[in-house]
Amino acid sequence: MLPLGQGKEWHVLALAVRYDATIIESRKREAKATYEGEGGYQPMLAV
Fold first, then answer.
1. How far apart are CA 19 and CA 17, in angstroms?
2. Residue 3 domain flag
3. CB–CB of 47/33 below 8 Å?
């Protein structure tokens, strides 16, 4: 949490970040091997 404001007045700002790192199977040559042995990508998405 970040305190915001000046003087005696304080406001508190709280943020939550949700993220997902799902493995997407792919047959492209550039795809790396996943832990299951297939080729794929693991992009990270944060909202």
1. 7
2. no
3. no
The β-bridge partners of 4 are: 11
Residue 47's domain comprises: 18-47
Q: Is the pLDDT of residue 35 over 70?
A: yes
The tokens describing 3, both together, are: 């305190």
Is residue 41 classed as helix, strand or coil in its secondary structure? strand
The pair of structure tokens assigned to 30 is 């550039």
Is 27 part of any domain? yes
Whole-model pTM: value is 0.39
Kindly state whether residue 4 falls inside one of the protein's structural domains.
no
pLDDT of residue 25: 83
Amino acid 34: pLDDT: 80
- Residue 46 amino acid letter: A
